[in-house]
Amino acid sequence: MSTAHVVVNVLLAAALISSAITNFVRYQRVLDIMAKVHVPESWLNPLGIVKIAGALGLLVGLRVPRVGIAAAAGVVLFFACALFVHLRARDDHVVPATAFGLVAALALALGLAA
Questions:
Q1: CA 113: distance to chain centroid?
Q2: Which residues are within 8 A (CB) of 58 and not within 5 positions of it... i.e. 6 or more apart?
Q3: Averaged pLDDT, 10-23
Q4: Collapsing DSSP states into helix, strand and coil, what is residue 89?
Q5: DSSP one-letter string for 67-103
Q6: Each residue of 30-61: pLDDT tens digit?
Q7: In this structure, are residues 2 and 114 in contact, taking their beta carbons and an 8 Å threshold?
C-alpha cells in the first residue's frame, strides 16, 4: 500500500465525515441546496449515514483492502448519483459532488493498484 493511497483514503474519509455532520446538524446551506435539487429534508440523515459508512469503509480498507475497494466504489457511485441529481435539477452547484467523486475514483484506482 502506497503513502498516496493512505493519504487519499484518510483525507476522503475526513471530508465525508465533515459532509455528513453538515447533514446531521441541518446546516442551512445544505438545506438550501437540497431544496433546490428537490431532495426532501427527511433524506439528510440517511444520506449522512451513507457518507459515514463510506468513510468507515475507506478507513477499514487500509487494513482490509477488499473493504476499501468496495467502499471507494460505493462512494464513487454515491457522488455520481449526486451529480446526476444536480444536473437533472439544472443546478450549477456541481463542484463538490464532482470533486468528491474524482477523489473517490482516485481512492478506488489506488486501492485496485495496491
A1: 21
A2: 9, 10, 12, 13, 16, 68, 71, 72, 75, 107
A3: 97
A4: coil
A5: HHHHHHHHHHHHHHHHHHHHHHTT-S--HHHHHHHHH
A6: 999 999 999 999 999 999 999 999 999 999 99
A7: yes
